[in-house]
Q: What sequence folds into this?
């Protein structure tokens, strides 16, 4: 006896999409708050130490998650173990570079420069994976690059080398994203998570141990919030992709820049310069134009 599957109605799809967008916005809000906490902590604690605490918490979560999903043994099998290692180390250095950027720059400026990474990922995917770039995406890349130049202001006497820190992080995350695309075609989500958590915990521990600074009770509390919120934000983002397509959610990912700017102004008294706002708008418009249907 066959079972007839009822098609999803337009109203049902619209409701699912709205739920996905809502979850995506919540995840971006948590990510922005998390970066605000990081900016507070990096004033007195080494960035590598923050990474070590977060990665060990992430590894504990990954092991518990995989145990519930059928065991760790299956997740250890990878078709590309060396690529997994490379991807994990790139993630470690990307997080460290982003933390350094928050030490020297404001939340809004850091995120405005970092927001170029989707367009960088698009270009690297074409070079390394052979993905096709449409004329529209080429135009979008030029728009985003122009926006980044406006923010950086090279050759105008106000350029700061520290502004290159989040740009370097954006390049690293673009490489991380391209490797994730390649690896995810053959390795499972659990494998990706386990390798990233293990190698990240090992690498961050090796870097943090020699320069460990004992946190205060308040800093321990913030480290706990930082670690838990990181997992929550990732879970919210994953859930959002269950209810809405990635191409639909792409424009809403840029709300991270908006939330970070709000936190920067309200928590740290940052001033949003005209060049920063104009440049950020161009970067966002370029990203939306590149990935819209």
A:
């Amino acid at each position: 006896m066959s079972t007839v599957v009822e098609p999803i109605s337009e109203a049902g799809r619209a409701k699912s999409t709205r739920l996905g967008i809502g979850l995506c916005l919540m995840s971006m809000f948590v990510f922005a708050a998390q970066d605000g906490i990081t900016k507070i902590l990096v004033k007195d604690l080494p960035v590598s130490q923050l990474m070590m605490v977060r990665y060990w918490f992430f590894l504990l979560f990954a092991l518990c998650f995989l145990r519930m999903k059928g065991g760790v043994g299956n997740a250890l099998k990878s078709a590309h173990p060396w690529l997994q290692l490379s991807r994990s180390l790139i993630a470690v250095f990307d997080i460290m570079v982003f933390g350094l950027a928050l030490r020297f720059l404001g939340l809004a400026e850091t995120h405005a420069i970092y927001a170029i990474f989707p367009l960088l990922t698009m270009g690297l995917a074409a070079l390394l994976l052979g993905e096709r770039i449409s004329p529209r995406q080429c135009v979008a890349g030029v728009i985003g690059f122009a926006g980044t130049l406006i923010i950086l202001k090279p050759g105008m006497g106000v350029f700061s080398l520290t502004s290159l820190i989040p740009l370097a992080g954006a390049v690293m995350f673009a490489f991380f994203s391209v490797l994730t695309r390649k690896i995810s075609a053959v390795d499972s989500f659990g494998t990706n998570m386990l390798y990233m958590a293990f190698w990240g915990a090992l690498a961050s521990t090796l870097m943090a141990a020699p320069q460990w600074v004992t946190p205060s009770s308040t800093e321990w509390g913030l480290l706990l919030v930082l670690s838990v919120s990181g997992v929550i934000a990732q879970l919210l983002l994953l859930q959002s992709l269950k209810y809405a397509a990635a191409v639909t959610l792409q424009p809403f990912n840029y709300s991270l820049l908006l939330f970070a700017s709000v936190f920067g102004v309200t928590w740290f008294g940052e001033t949003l310069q005209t060049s920063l706002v104009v440049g950020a708008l161009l970067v966002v418009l370029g990203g939306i134009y590149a990935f819209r249907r």
DSSP finds twelve helices and no strands in the chain. The CA atoms of residues 119 and 246 lie 15 Å apart.
